[in-house]
Design a protein that fits this description.
single chain; 461 residues; alpha/beta; Rossmann fold; 5-stranded mixed beta sheet; 5-stranded parallel beta sheet; 18 helices; binds 5-phosphoarabinonic acid
Length: 461
């Protein structure tokens, strides 16, 4: 596996206004501090996402379920939100199409369709439930806490329909993925004998993609989950070193943090030049935003704003802003060496120069030329950018990319001086939602809600 980071265009030598050598010289000392924090967290057992990659002990059960009972279904519907949905979506987009070919000659002949209900918009929920045949559908109810309002609402609707249509058989169509001990889902599973897999207690939602949260849906649609874990484990060994220069996660995390804290480049764009990696952007956005956007102990707010973009599509949209808008961004391109397929552009219209130059090239060449051209153009305008190149998009490389960003997030959290593993900022909104929806234990929240003064004048039109 090769995943390389080229950060030439982050530095002053290549880009005017880039990180100056004397600033970058401070990075090693800053990273040494971050590495210390990482080591303490690891020793306290807080970084369970690493163990997921290093210890594949649960994989055999998961695969035997996917290969056995899993094949009885034509559709799998994931019910979840946040980290419980974005991981399965990213894996499906990145790896599903190639898996069909890679596993062609293996025992499994049939893979179900995978739907992920990551929201509670009734239009989508009704449409997915209306499309699937319930008797041939498996619902994976994914919630680490086991009580998230959106996921529970999806579950109640799905269960209601299953019970109405299948009677006592309904249990065969439900698998819960939740905390080993806590939460309503765990209790229901225990009381009613519904199948339930464990999300380790030291693995939070946005770090759960390599737990059963991502791996079970992936295995059900034929993705090579062993290769995913092996890729992640290989990358972990590269990211587990003290030396900044040879540690890709340290380089990524430290550069982004320095660009933000020293140069005011607080918007971090992730821009894969690859349709299969489009949803990887959404997964990264949650990881970077929910982990790093925090109030520090001294009361100051920190955190970069991650922005997803797609090459080349966004060259005809956001790139104008990246080139000429406020100089407050870094762009991370994700390039792909070898694509699963390529198409040659035929040599037609030899007499029309606007078309004839394309003939004989391939679409992959065009995609890559546009990426290189955009990186160079941004650099010319003093816009900092870096490129992460994957040799190819397969389970091994995707596992590696996941671990690279997870480790970078932990290092960046230490550099910003915050806890990247919690999300206290989303709690208040949740409590008010409980109050508005009448949850019995939300009495205090209701009182707080009622005490919020009504604005004297409403400015709606
Ligand atoms: O990263 C996180 O912890 C969150 O984004 C959660 O994934 C999200 O809130 C869903 O939580 P749960 O899995 O407990 O339903």
């Amino acid at each position: 596996m090769t995943i390389r980071i080229d950060y030439t265009n982050m530095m002053a030598g290549a880009v005017s206004g880039g990180l100056a050598p004397e600033v970058w010289a401070e990075a090693a000392a800053a990273f040494a501090g971050a590495r210390g924090v990482f080591t303490e967290r690891r020793a306290r057992g807080e970084l369970g996402f690493i163990d997921l990659a290093l210890d594949g002990s649960g994989i055999a059960d998961l695969l035997s379920f996917a290969d056995g009972a899993g094949q009885a279904f034509s559709d799998v519907v994931v019910l979840g939100i946040g980290g419980s949905a974005l991981g399965p979506i990213a894996l499906r987009s990145a790896l599903r199409s190639t898996s069909w070919n890679a596993l062609d000659d293996e025992a499994r002949e049939y893979f179900p369709r995978l739907h992920v209900l990551e929201n509670v918009d009734p239009v989508t929920v009704a449409s997915v439930l209306g499309r699937v045949e319930l008797g041939r559908t498996l619902f994976l109810v994914i919630s680490k806490s086991g009580g998230t309002a959106e996921t529970m609402a999806q579950y109640l609707i799905a269960r209601g329909r299953l019970e109405a249509e299948l009677g006592k058989e309904f249990k065969r169509h439900l698998v819960f993925l939740t905390d080993p001990a806590r939460g309503a889902l765990r209790e229901i599973a225990r009381n009613e004998g519904i199948a339930a897999l464990e999300i380790p207690s030291n693995v939070g939602g946005r770090f759960s993609i390599l737990s059963p949260v991502g791996l079970l849906p992936a295995a059900l649609i034929g993705i090579d989950v062993r290769a995913l874990l092996a890729g992640a484990a290989d990358m972990f060994s590269r990211c587990d070193g003290d030396e900044l220069a040879s540690n890709p996660a340290a380089v990524f995390g430290t550069l982004q943090w320095m660009a933000d804290s020293r140069l005011g480049l607080r918007n971090h764009i992730i821009m894969p030049y690859s349709d299969p990696l489009r949803d990887f952007g959404g997964w990264f956005v949650q990881l970077w935003a929910e982990s790093l956007g925090k109030i520090k102990s001294d009361g100051t707010s920190v955190g970069p704003t991650p922005i997803p973009a797609l090459g080349v599509t966004d060259q005809h949209s956001q790139v104008q802003l990246f080139m000429e808008g406020p100089r407050d961004k870094t762009v991370t391109f994700v390039a792909v060496g070898e694509r699963a397929v390529d198409l040659e552009i035929p040599k037609l219209h030899g007499d029309i120069p606007e078309l004839s130059y394309l003939g004989g090239h391939t679409l992959a060449e065009l995609l890559d030329a546009e990426r290189r051209a955009t990186a160079a153009a941004l650099s010319q305008r003093g816009r900092l950018n870096m490129t992460i190149t994957l040799d190819s998009i397969d389970a091994h490389h995707v596992g590696g990319l996941i671990m690279l960003f997870e480790m970078a997030t932990i290092y960046a959290g230490a550099l910003y001086g915050i806890n990247p593993l919690d999300q206290p900022g989303v709690e208040l909104g949740k409590r008010y939602t409980y109050a508005l929806m009448g949850r019995p234990d939300a009495v205090d929240a209701r009182r707080e809600w009622d005490a919020i003064p009504e604005p004297e004048q409403r400015w709606g039109v």
